[in-house]
Design goal:
The protein is α/β, with parallel strands linked by helices. It has helices spanning about 10-25, 35-40, 45-50, 60-70, 85-95, 105-110, 135-145, 170-185, 195-200, 330-340, 340-350, and strands at about 5-10, 30-35, 55-60, 75-80, 95-100, 120-125, 150-160, 190, 210, 235-245, 250-255, 260, 265-270, 285-290, 295, 305-310, 320-325, 355. It has two domains: about 10-215, Alanine racemase (TIM Barrel), CATH 3.20.20; about 235-355, Lyase, Ornithine Decarboxylase, Chain A, domain 1 (Beta Barrel), CATH 2.40.37. The chain is about 30% helix and about 25% strand. Helix 7 links the parallel strand 6 (about 120-125) and strand 7. It is elongated and about 75 Å long. Bound molecules: pyridoxal-5'-phosphate. Pyridoxal-5'-phosphate binds near residues 194, 195, 213 and 214. The site of pyridoxal-5'-phosphate has 13 residues, from loops.
Length: about 350
């Protein structure tokens, strides 16, 4: 039996999005970013589906080990690196590329047994002020990495943009220029671009692009949806109508009575709540697609359900599918209603929601 709520992930869409990324950055290799359970799409199934990617990027070593455990043999990059000697040894054993972004990580590498070998991505902070060697420290950090000798299989260079949602960001251009200056004269492979830079800043493509969101078919830009960038949304979050009821004009629905029927109404109760990862901040009027038409959220999101005003939609009955987001209802639009971003909504899909790759 199908579960009431499920996240259906389209393998064809994931592959089409990888192809689209290659079309946009034809001279670059693609590091597919699959951290945070592949933005809610399922880490292992997504990676197996995107086996054509040139590398996978993950945030934590557990994610990398899960990929290796599932038989992923290709390049895996630990985007935050390792934080102790055991993790470093594990990275060597499992042939994981490591990002190095701070002095403690340099010290760990310098103390590593000579049998351990690493591909190191040196991360330079060009303006994000989160991870990475500050510009004033970059040259000395790179020299220390050069001095690792045979422990260093290869040194690569990267930075990360602070703008993930703007088309033409002066900060992005400034970061690009800084990175050029700081890495001048080195022949190492370079990587800068997240999804936003992939589309907005072709000069940032370099040797490796690092899209996350775009691979899932979702736009990083506030004023665009994935489709308009040639992407195909990969996830359909779909649930089921579990009750239909009449509400008389003047009555309220749900906790706090924050929705009041302006007329005699029909309301569908849908099995999807903040326990499934729906933002509780979604306001009245947020669209939910039932029988191909847009119903409107009526009242607060509860843990396990929502109420949807379906007064204008004919024939709604128990068992009907209710689409929370997907190709026909962009997650970008739902995120805007929540005052959030698509990234957060996708990652928040909770563990009790079964994922089905189809
Ligand atoms: C998450 C992440 C990305 C992917 O960003 P998107 O905006 O999802 O494309 C790229 N690089 C690094 C270092 C990241 O942490």
């Amino acid at each position: 039996m199908k579960s009431l709520i499920r996240a259906e992930v389209s393998a064809a869409a994931l592959r089409a999005n990888l192809a689209r990324v290659r079309e946009v950055a034809p001279a670059s290799r693609v590091m597919a970013v699959v951290k945070a359970n592949a933005y809610g799409h399922g880490l292992v199934p997504t990676a197996l589906c995107l086996a054509d990617a040139d590398a996978f990027g993950v945030a934590r070593i557990d994610e990398a080990l899960a990929l290796r455990g599932a038989g992923v043999r290709g390049r895996i990059v630990l985007l935050e690196g390792v934080f102790n000697a055991e993790q470093l040894a594990e990275a060597a054993r499992q042939s994981l590329d490591i990002v190095v972004h701070e002095a403690e990580q340099l010290e760990l590498l310098e103390a590593a047994p000579s049998g351990q070998r690493f591909v190191v991505w040196a991360k330079i902070d060009t303006g994000m002020n989160r991870l990475g060697f500050r510009p004033s420290m970059a040259q000395s950090a790179l020299r220390r990495l050069d001095a690792l000798g045979e422990r260093l299989l290869e040194l690569r260079l990267m930075t990360h943009f602070a703008s993930a949602d703007e088309r033409d960001s002066s900060l992005m251009r400034q970061q690009l220029a800084r990175f050029d200056v700081l890495t001048q004269g080195r022949r190492s492979e370079r990587s800068l671009a997240n999804s936003a830079a992939l589309f907005a800043q072709p000069q940032s493509h370099a040797d490796w692009v690092r899209p996350g969101l775009a691979l899932y078919g979702v736009s990083p830009f506030a004023d665009q949806v994935g489709r308009s960038l040639g992407l195909t949304p990969a996830m359909r979050l779909v649930s089921t109508v579990i009750a239909v009821r009449k509400v008389s004009a003047g009555e309220t629905v749900g906790y706090g009575g924050v929705w009041r029927a302006a007329r005699d109404s029909q309301v569908a109760i849908v099995a999807a709540g903040y326990g499934d990862g729906l933002p509780r901040a979604l306001p009245n009027g947020t669209p939910v697609l039932i029988r191909g038409a847009r119903g409107e959220l009526a009242g607060r999101v509860s843990m396990d359900m929502i109420a949807v005003d379906v007064t204008g939609i004919a024939g709604v009955q128990v068992g009907d599918a209710a689409l929370l987001w997907g190709p026909e209802l962009p997650v970008e639009e739902i995120a805007a209603h929540a005052g959030s971003i698509s990234y957060e909504l996708l990652c928040a899909v909770s563990q009790r929601v079964p994922l089905a790759l189809m």
